[in-house]
Amino acid sequence: MSFLQPWMLIALPLIAAPVIIHLVNQRRFQTVPWAAMRFLLQASKMSSGYSKLRQWLILALRTLAIAALILFTARPLASGLLGLLGNRTDEIAVVLVDRSPSMQQTQPGTGMTKQQSALMQLASTLATLGVKRVAVFDSFSEKPIELETPDDITSNVGLLPNGATSDLPGLMERALAYIKSNRLASTDVWICSDMRESDWKSRDGRWGAAREGFLDLAQDVRFHILDLSSGSDENLAIRILNAKRVEEPTGPELSISFKLERRSRGQSAEKNEGDTIAASGPSIQVPVQIEVGSVRSVLPVDLQSGLAEVNDYRIPLLADEPAKQDDSRESQAGWGAIRIPADTNLADNASFFVFERPAIRRSIIVSDNPTLIEAIELCTNISPEQSIRCATETVTSSQLDSVDWNAISLVIWHEQLPTNRSLELLANFVSSGGQVLFLPPESPDTTQAFGFRWTTWETVPPTLSSAQSQSPDEPTNEDSQAALLARVQQWRNDSTILSNTLNGAALPVGQIGIKRICRIEGNGTALASINDSMPFLLKMDSAESGMSNSGSRNGVYVCTTTPAQSDSTLAKDGVVMYVAIQRVLAAGSERVGVSKMRTVGESDRKDLEQATQEVGDPTVFSNNYVEHTGVYRTPYLWIAQNRTIEEDNNTFVPESSISELFGSLPWSRIESGANANSLVQEIWKWFVIAMLLALVIEAALCIPKRRKSARPLDSTQPSLR
Amino acid sequence: MQGSVSGRHASPHRGSSVEFAEYRKYVPGDDLRRLDWRAFGRTDRYYVKEFEADTNLRCCVVLDTSGSMAYASKNQMSKIDYGRRIAASLAYLAAQQGDAVGLACVANKLVQNIPPRRSAAHLKVMLDTLEQTQPKGETQLPAILDELAETIRQRALIVVISDFFVDPALLKNCFEHLRFRKHDVAAFHLLDTQELEFTFQRPVRFNDMEGGTHLFVEPSEIADRYHRALQTYLIDMQRIVLESSVDYHRVTTSEAYEHPLMRFLIRRTQSRGVR
Predict the structure, then answer these.
(1) Which chain A residue has its CA at the smallest distance from B226's CA?
(2) CA dist B131 to A88, A375, B253, B260, Å?
(3) Is the pLDDT of residue A484 over 90?
(4) Domain B58-272, what architecture?
């Protein structure tokens, strides 16, 4: 048990007072000479066990009353934290809040979400513990929210729910930095979370760094995890998979694909298995409301085995007005939302989308010898879909100023590396999401760009395996020569451009024969290699490319050979080249459109600085659009933000993983009940009640019995004789 | 009362007296002088006239002088003093009537034994003895009463003054023994108010006045059981005196000693017609 005023416990020896008084009273007896001793002895022999028990009871009750009084004044606390908090009350508490959509699930029996419940309990607990100030960290606030009183936790607008997945390891690092920089003394760090793996990222390397950092601190830091993973009821979630505008002969149509899932916590499921798709539940029909602009319709979807997926559902769009039948992309863009009826979690009941007329995928080839790379031009010109148009233009580096860079998706650079103005234009292009593929020139010079430079061409010797595989009865010289070529031995199918196809089959990268490559100097990630020292395809690092702000959109690729017949069989085995180039082109075309579908957290704040909300939570402040789902419109873009896909992957962090994450740091896990107002409660009332009860019972036991008669028999009774 | 000299007490024998008792038919052997000739003249039958025989009284006062008789609650007379007064009063009354009176002081033994005599000087000896006797020691009242029953040869009035804190069964045997020896027995049972009420408040260490034992008790705890034991004892005493035909008087020492004495004398007058 812990106490808010533990120093009062020094009075505990006072519980011996009744015993001492009893003993003193025993010593203060009077001595009386007595004649009728025989009756006294008889009465003493008749003394029952109850009488002795009564005496002991009275003594025990008096002791209990004093003990209850002392404990009451020491202000005892009761909770799942018993013994964990000890007697420590800090001036300031650090709170890490998980504000992810899963925390918006309503707790059974209450009208509150998990986050509201956790914050209320925490506010009450911290107030009870006498915490003066609170520093709250969440994934979107760069600085901690410093609150003057614990009660402000529940009312601070910065702690309203959002649509982003939390980043617990990041929060731990920030909490560590805060404790260090503010030189806090012993600190309690409270973590409010529903223990989802998506928020905890238990395999993230930052956990180890944060743990070591906390262990190195001189001050004592203890962690209390408010576990909100329990108490989830069945929940339906909807997610948009794809939304695009399709031009049909009958007019434009909107094609949407979405997924509907019903998840519930199995009674016997292990905690770390998370929610499961409620496959055993009854088949139900869910009315899915589809909202396109201001037009709404309802599509009943049969949910069988807890899962339903609707693909390519077509909704006719109004034909474009003649005045707007130009290439103005904005006039052909739109937004929408799909919704399901309210259930236990409102945060996953809607998903938003934007769409537009597919942009023309424009590529430019910068080459001083275009004939060598005709095959690439073919790859960029042939569209993979009928509704998508492709266009390619071949220019020289001196013509770059005349290029409309805003319409370009991909640049194929087959010249000496760019310098000066060309480099500047290309860097801006890459920074804005454009993709560049560098191919080696015939005579490379020493120019350096994007963190690398070409060195020399080198003939690649045939690999051992390819030489052995040559069959003696091969019919033609050409085939035998091809068989002698070096092959790509290893490639990464987790990369964007060389990943497996939709049906899971690997690209035939290993069939590509390489005759010679041009060595490079620079740092990049090898996506495909002939051997460890001969990379075939690289993706240059952002920092090396000077694209520190481009983030994941950096798209600078370097191929160390060309599709020319004298260099490789890329053109002959064109499947790999076509797929890779179309993938790069598709990635680059995203910068061209005005509609962007992103997950919350993917956009920069500056992207949404001048945005207006088309649909979403109307209570959200405009400076917080970046962390909330909805459709936002800027002067140049339509942005639909949805929760991350990890939010639907409801895996919980197992207890063993938490132990590993915290290592030897002191931590405790507290199951946060839905009905509890506070994690700790002062229970002094119970001690007052106990004291009063003890006193009342003691008084009842002390009341002397009423004597029937002071004189048993009349002394003047006449003789019976 | 049986005695060797004529006195003021009715004798159990018929004899010469002025107090007519009854007529009885003459039987051969009767003294012819006692024939009532007038009755013969009226009825032509022989009747003998009988008279109540008056005799003197032999009274023996047995006073318990054991340690328990020294008890006195606050502002009250001790039981021994109370007993002394009753004993002295009875001795004086008996002496004034010319009856023989004796005194036996009883504790763990027969402390003093003054045989009954009629002289005036004897009264002084008795009163001096009563004054000098001090309560001490355990009581052996039953054994000594048995002894007295054997030693007092002539029929007498035995007046026992005691708190009777002895086994009632033994006491019953003593009373029956005395009655068997044709003695007339009267008992004054002296009790202190505190012994009856037991109104102590604080823890008390009780020291036995007749022995070395002591008992430490919380009076409020034990009072009920004490009263039950006392009541049982008193009921037993009533039953014993009833069965033994003892003239029993329970006396509280807070009462004036004349009152029980008065009750004793009046009752004897009513039952025996003593003048």
Answers:
(1) A43
(2) 83, 154, 18, 21
(3) no
(4) 3-Layer(aba) Sandwich (3.40)
